Amino acid sequence: MTLGFTLDTPPAFGARQQREHLGFGVFYGALSIMIIMSLIFAIALKQRNAAYYAVFLLSTILFWLKLNGIGFQYLWPDAVWWHNEGFHIVYLLFVGCALQFSKSFLQLDSLAPRLNRVFATLQLLALAGIVARLLGLYEPVLMLSFALLVVLTFVIPFASYKVWRDGLDYAFWSLLAWLLYAVGLLLSIISASTSLFSWGMTPLFYAQVASLLETLFLMIGLSKWLIQLELERQKAISQANEDALTGLGNRRRLQLAFTQLKDAMVIDHRPAFVLMIDLDYFKQINDTFGHDAGDKVLTEVGSLLLRICRESDVVTRYGGEEFAILLRAQDVDTVVQVAERIRVEFASSPTKHHDHMIEHTLCCGIAEIMNIDQQPSVQEMMKHADEALYQAKAAGRNQSHVYAHKQPHHIV
């Protein structure tokens, strides 16, 4: 390496030192903030990948503390052996942490098993090098550490490109980060090991800037990965609470809404009702026109319910040809109006299937399930609504009934 020297006056030297310390403060401060954020992600979201990134950042800090002498100057001034002889241990530790984070972040175990094995082999070499250095070997470990640092600048960008091309969108940030870092690191290694350039310590400065940008890009990628995980989690929850055919909620969604309703009753004292709906003679529709026709009728019911009900109402397919709506209203008459509108519109809107117009009707059972004085269980709620629905069926179908504690009340 060629070294450049500058003679400064004391004021100029002080100003230069201030600039350097400011730069180091920005570098180590930014990495420290990212470590804290990663640990918060790791603990709050229980994601190992975020913990791997925090460890990688720690190894990056240790790497640069030794390279720019800040560690020896301020942190371990008496540890001369560690500062002089521990360089290669730190290099190899950095390599192992970078490979571990990248393996996890890029999902190589499932997306690129062969590359995953390559990464694992390189990690074993790094570990073997650390052990060898602790046993006193110097030159072989020196060559191994530089070789692995160079290999790192190729294998991680290659792996990032491969999984990005295969559809892992956030791997683009890993590719960009490691390409940038590779340029800075390779220039430093070439400058240190050859006489091709007379740049002095300048490549090392550029490599440190590249290292900071690399960690920032990786943080962006990690954030996008965490956002994607959260979106997938929300989608899974939504699918778990959704009926696949109609797009309405399912029985699980109804039970969850019932539990939430109990909590909301403390603030909003309006009574709550459940409106149970059952299609009349639905089996005959399936037997006569086929299950495709039956599915079409069910989807049209779902569309009708969503059109008539409010956004605050919980509309679900309870099972088979049964639907349930959980809603708040000032009184039962308001709910009856909703039920009657559903019943009338469904009866007056036959479903067209191929060349057939399928006539159909439904029954509604209405029950007040919760008020400020009464909060039954979800089983009691459905039992009351079922009783009202049964009375509507028994009375000749295409009717609505309201549950009464002694005798369900027929809506004329």
UniProtKB/TrEMBL annotation:
Catalytic activity: 2 GTP = 3',3'-c-di-GMP + 2 diphosphate
Primary enzyme class: transferase
One Pfam family per UniProt: GGDEF
Gene3D superfamilies assigned: 3.30.70.270
UniProt-listed CDD domains: GGDEF (cd01949)
Enzyme Commission number(s): 2.7.7.65
Transmembrane residue ranges: 26-45, 52-76, 88-106, 118-135, 141-159, 171-192, 204-227
PANTHER family xref list: DIGUANYLATE CYCLASE DGCM-RELATED, REGULATORY COMPONENTS OF SENSORY TRANSDUCTION SYSTEM
Protein name: diguanylate cyclase
Organism expressing this protein natively: Gilvimarinus gilvus
